[in-house]
Amino acid sequence: xxxxxxxxxxxxxGVSLVVMPGQGLRGVRRRVEEDVQRKGRPQMIYVxxxxxxxxxxxxxxxxxxxxxxxxxxxxxxxxxVDMATEIAGVKVVFGTMATMNxxxxxxMRHSQGRxxxxxxxxxxxxxxxxxxxxxxxxxxxxxxxxxMRGWKTPFLHSEVCHRRKxxxxxxxxxxxxxxxxxxxxxxxxxxxMIEKTVAQNLLKxxxxxxxxxxxxxxxxxxxxxxxxxSRTVAERxx
Length: 238
Hints:
By secondary structure, the protein is α/β, with parallel strands linked by helices. It has seven helices and eight strands. It has one domain: 3-Layer(aba) Sandwich (Rossmann fold), CATH 3.40.50.1110. The chain has helices spanning 25-39, 51-54, 69-86, 102-111, 124-148, 184-219, 225-236; strands at 2-3, 18-19, 44-48, 56-57, 63-64, 91-94, 161-163, 169-171.
Protein backbone atom coordinates (compact mmCIF):
# COMPACT_ATOMS: atom_id res chain seq x y z
CA UNK A 1 0.00 0.00 0.00
CA UNK A 2 1.38 3.38 -1.08
CA UNK A 3 0.19 6.59 0.55
CA UNK A 4 1.12 10.22 0.91
CA UNK A 5 1.63 11.61 4.43
CA UNK A 6 -2.05 11.10 5.24
CA UNK A 7 -1.43 7.37 5.54
CA UNK A 8 1.04 7.75 8.38
CA UNK A 9 -0.17 5.77 11.39
CA UNK A 10 -2.30 3.25 9.50
CA UNK A 11 -2.30 -0.13 11.26
CA UNK A 12 -2.79 -2.81 8.61
CA UNK A 13 -2.24 -6.45 9.47
CA GLY A 14 -0.34 -8.28 6.75
CA VAL A 15 -0.17 -5.27 4.42
CA SER A 16 3.13 -3.53 3.65
CA LEU A 17 2.82 0.23 4.00
CA VAL A 18 4.94 2.78 2.12
CA VAL A 19 4.35 6.38 3.26
CA MET A 20 5.60 9.09 0.90
CA PRO A 21 5.16 12.59 2.41
CA GLY A 22 4.79 15.39 -0.09
CA GLN A 23 4.32 13.07 -3.06
CA GLY A 24 1.59 13.12 -5.68
CA LEU A 25 0.74 10.30 -8.04
CA ARG A 26 3.83 10.73 -10.22
CA GLY A 27 6.10 10.20 -7.25
CA VAL A 28 4.06 7.23 -6.07
CA ARG A 29 4.18 5.64 -9.51
CA ARG A 30 7.95 6.01 -9.72
CA ARG A 31 8.29 4.28 -6.36
CA VAL A 32 5.92 1.47 -7.39
CA GLU A 33 7.88 0.85 -10.59
CA GLU A 34 11.17 0.83 -8.66
CA ASP A 35 9.78 -1.65 -6.14
CA VAL A 36 8.45 -3.90 -8.91
CA GLN A 37 11.92 -4.03 -10.46
CA ARG A 38 13.66 -4.71 -7.15
CA LYS A 39 11.14 -6.96 -5.38
CA GLY A 40 8.99 -8.46 -8.12
CA ARG A 41 5.35 -7.92 -9.00
CA PRO A 42 2.77 -7.99 -6.22
CA GLN A 43 -0.69 -9.25 -7.17
CA MET A 44 -2.33 -6.04 -6.05
CA ILE A 45 -1.38 -2.63 -4.71
CA TYR A 46 -3.43 0.17 -3.15
CA VAL A 47 -2.76 3.85 -3.78
CA UNK A 48 -4.03 6.43 -1.31
CA UNK A 49 -2.85 9.75 -2.71
CA UNK A 50 -3.82 12.54 -5.08
CA UNK A 51 -4.81 15.59 -3.03
CA UNK A 52 -1.46 17.21 -3.85
CA UNK A 53 -2.19 16.80 -7.55
CA UNK A 54 -5.32 18.93 -7.24
CA UNK A 55 -3.61 21.95 -5.64
CA UNK A 56 -0.53 24.07 -6.28
CA UNK A 57 2.24 24.99 -3.85
CA UNK A 58 3.71 28.43 -4.47
CA UNK A 59 7.37 29.27 -4.07
CA UNK A 60 6.66 30.66 -0.62
CA UNK A 61 4.96 27.43 0.44
CA UNK A 62 1.36 28.65 0.32
CA UNK A 63 -1.04 26.01 -1.01
CA UNK A 64 -3.63 27.34 -3.45
CA UNK A 65 -6.07 26.10 -6.07
CA UNK A 66 -5.54 27.47 -9.56
CA UNK A 67 -6.95 26.61 -12.95
CA UNK A 68 -10.15 24.99 -14.08
CA UNK A 69 -11.72 22.28 -11.89
CA UNK A 70 -12.58 20.05 -14.83
CA UNK A 71 -9.08 20.30 -16.29
CA UNK A 72 -7.40 19.42 -13.01
CA UNK A 73 -9.74 16.49 -12.42
CA UNK A 74 -9.21 15.22 -15.97
CA UNK A 75 -5.42 15.41 -15.57
CA UNK A 76 -5.53 13.50 -12.30
CA UNK A 77 -7.88 10.87 -13.70
CA UNK A 78 -5.55 10.32 -16.66
CA UNK A 79 -2.65 9.68 -14.28
CA UNK A 80 -4.76 7.13 -12.42
CA VAL A 81 -5.91 5.34 -15.57
CA ASP A 82 -2.35 5.24 -16.90
CA MET A 83 -1.04 3.84 -13.63
CA ALA A 84 -3.80 1.23 -13.48
CA THR A 85 -3.21 0.01 -17.01
CA GLU A 86 0.49 0.50 -17.78
CA ILE A 87 2.21 -1.32 -14.91
CA ALA A 88 2.04 -4.80 -16.42
CA GLY A 89 0.92 -7.60 -14.16
CA VAL A 90 0.02 -5.37 -11.20
CA LYS A 91 -3.58 -4.74 -10.20
CA VAL A 92 -3.96 -1.20 -8.85
CA VAL A 93 -6.80 -0.08 -6.55
CA PHE A 94 -7.24 3.60 -5.69
CA GLY A 95 -8.79 4.89 -2.50
CA THR A 96 -11.04 7.93 -2.49
CA MET A 97 -9.58 11.06 -0.91
CA ALA A 98 -10.76 13.38 1.79
CA THR A 99 -10.79 17.07 0.95
CA MET A 100 -8.50 19.54 2.71
CA ASN A 101 -9.13 22.83 4.49
CA UNK A 102 -6.94 25.31 2.65
CA UNK A 103 -7.31 28.14 5.16
CA UNK A 104 -6.49 26.03 8.21
CA UNK A 105 -3.44 24.50 6.56
CA UNK A 106 -1.95 27.77 5.30
CA UNK A 107 -2.70 29.77 8.45
CA MET A 108 -1.13 27.08 10.62
CA ARG A 109 1.99 26.96 8.43
CA HIS A 110 2.16 30.76 8.51
CA SER A 111 2.00 30.77 12.31
CA GLN A 112 4.90 28.30 12.35
CA GLY A 113 6.98 30.60 10.17
CA ARG A 114 6.93 28.21 7.22
CA UNK A 115 5.04 30.69 5.04
CA UNK A 116 6.16 34.29 5.21
CA UNK A 117 3.10 35.86 3.66
CA UNK A 118 -0.45 34.70 2.90
CA UNK A 119 -0.91 36.37 -0.46
CA UNK A 120 -4.15 34.59 -1.35
CA UNK A 121 -5.93 34.57 2.02
CA UNK A 122 -8.71 36.79 0.68
CA UNK A 123 -9.81 34.15 -1.84
CA UNK A 124 -9.44 31.01 0.29
CA UNK A 125 -13.23 30.70 0.45
CA UNK A 126 -13.59 30.56 -3.33
CA UNK A 127 -10.64 28.19 -3.62
CA UNK A 128 -12.15 25.90 -0.99
CA UNK A 129 -15.32 25.51 -3.04
CA UNK A 130 -13.25 24.54 -6.07
CA UNK A 131 -11.16 22.05 -4.11
CA UNK A 132 -14.30 20.44 -2.71
CA UNK A 133 -15.88 20.27 -6.15
CA UNK A 134 -12.75 18.66 -7.59
CA UNK A 135 -12.51 16.12 -4.75
CA UNK A 136 -16.15 15.07 -5.09
CA UNK A 137 -15.75 14.57 -8.84
CA UNK A 138 -12.43 12.69 -8.71
CA UNK A 139 -13.84 10.40 -6.02
CA UNK A 140 -16.76 9.60 -8.31
CA UNK A 141 -14.32 8.72 -11.08
CA UNK A 142 -12.06 6.70 -8.76
CA UNK A 143 -15.02 4.59 -7.71
CA UNK A 144 -16.06 4.10 -11.35
CA UNK A 145 -12.50 3.09 -12.33
CA UNK A 146 -12.26 0.52 -9.55
CA UNK A 147 -15.75 -0.82 -10.30
CA MET A 148 -14.95 -1.12 -14.01
CA ARG A 149 -11.96 -3.26 -13.13
CA GLY A 150 -13.96 -5.32 -10.64
CA TRP A 151 -12.47 -4.08 -7.35
CA LYS A 152 -13.95 -2.71 -4.15
CA THR A 153 -12.98 0.85 -3.21
CA PRO A 154 -11.72 2.06 0.18
CA PHE A 155 -14.04 5.04 0.74
CA LEU A 156 -11.63 7.13 2.81
CA HIS A 157 -13.47 10.36 2.04
CA SER A 158 -16.59 9.23 3.88
CA GLU A 159 -15.49 10.46 7.32
CA VAL A 160 -15.05 14.01 6.03
CA CYS A 161 -17.52 14.31 3.13
CA HIS A 162 -21.18 13.42 3.62
CA ARG A 163 -23.98 13.64 1.08
CA ARG A 164 -27.05 15.28 2.52
CA LYS A 165 -30.58 15.73 1.24
CA UNK A 166 -31.02 17.07 -2.30
CA UNK A 167 -27.50 15.94 -3.17
CA UNK A 168 -25.70 18.59 -1.14
CA UNK A 169 -22.37 17.75 0.44
CA UNK A 170 -21.32 18.45 4.01
CA UNK A 171 -17.61 18.74 4.75
CA UNK A 172 -16.53 18.02 8.33
CA UNK A 173 -13.11 19.63 8.42
CA UNK A 174 -12.67 19.08 12.15
CA UNK A 175 -11.54 15.51 11.39
CA UNK A 176 -8.43 17.07 9.79
CA UNK A 177 -6.21 18.22 12.64
CA UNK A 178 -4.20 20.69 10.56
CA UNK A 179 -6.53 21.01 7.60
CA UNK A 180 -4.89 18.10 5.76
CA UNK A 181 -3.95 15.18 8.02
CA UNK A 182 -6.54 12.97 9.72
CA UNK A 183 -7.02 12.73 13.46
CA UNK A 184 -5.88 9.61 15.27
CA UNK A 185 -9.50 8.48 15.57
CA UNK A 186 -10.02 8.82 11.83
CA UNK A 187 -6.80 6.93 11.06
CA UNK A 188 -8.16 4.09 13.18
CA UNK A 189 -11.39 4.06 11.18
CA UNK A 190 -9.43 4.18 7.94
CA UNK A 191 -7.36 1.17 9.04
CA UNK A 192 -10.47 -0.94 9.63
CA MET A 193 -12.04 0.22 6.38
CA ILE A 194 -8.93 -0.61 4.37
CA GLU A 195 -8.51 -4.04 5.97
CA LYS A 196 -12.12 -4.89 5.11
CA THR A 197 -11.66 -3.75 1.51
CA VAL A 198 -8.39 -5.68 1.14
CA ALA A 199 -10.13 -8.86 2.35
CA GLN A 200 -13.01 -8.35 -0.10
CA ASN A 201 -10.66 -7.83 -3.04
CA LEU A 202 -8.53 -10.85 -2.12
CA LEU A 203 -11.69 -12.95 -2.22
CA LYS A 204 -12.53 -11.53 -5.65
CA UNK A 205 -9.00 -12.29 -6.82
CA UNK A 206 -9.29 -15.91 -5.66
CA UNK A 207 -12.63 -16.26 -7.45
CA UNK A 208 -11.12 -14.96 -10.68
CA UNK A 209 -8.24 -17.42 -10.43
CA UNK A 210 -10.64 -20.32 -9.82
CA UNK A 211 -12.75 -19.26 -12.82
CA UNK A 212 -9.62 -19.16 -14.96
CA UNK A 213 -8.62 -22.68 -13.94
CA UNK A 214 -12.14 -23.96 -14.56
CA UNK A 215 -12.20 -22.39 -18.02
CA UNK A 216 -8.85 -23.98 -18.85
CA UNK A 217 -9.95 -27.46 -17.71
CA UNK A 218 -13.22 -27.20 -19.62
CA UNK A 219 -11.54 -26.21 -22.88
CA UNK A 220 -8.56 -28.57 -22.59
CA UNK A 221 -10.04 -31.37 -24.64
CA UNK A 222 -11.84 -29.14 -27.15
CA UNK A 223 -10.47 -28.32 -30.56
CA UNK A 224 -9.30 -24.73 -30.44
CA UNK A 225 -9.68 -24.67 -26.65
CA UNK A 226 -6.36 -22.95 -26.07
CA UNK A 227 -7.35 -20.04 -28.30
CA UNK A 228 -10.72 -19.70 -26.59
CA UNK A 229 -9.09 -19.73 -23.16
CA SER A 230 -6.65 -17.01 -24.23
CA ARG A 231 -9.55 -14.86 -25.33
CA THR A 232 -11.34 -15.48 -22.03
CA VAL A 233 -8.29 -14.42 -20.02
CA ALA A 234 -7.79 -11.35 -22.21
CA GLU A 235 -11.40 -10.30 -21.68
CA ARG A 236 -11.05 -10.62 -17.91
CA UNK A 237 -7.66 -8.96 -17.76
CA UNK A 238 -7.66 -5.60 -15.95
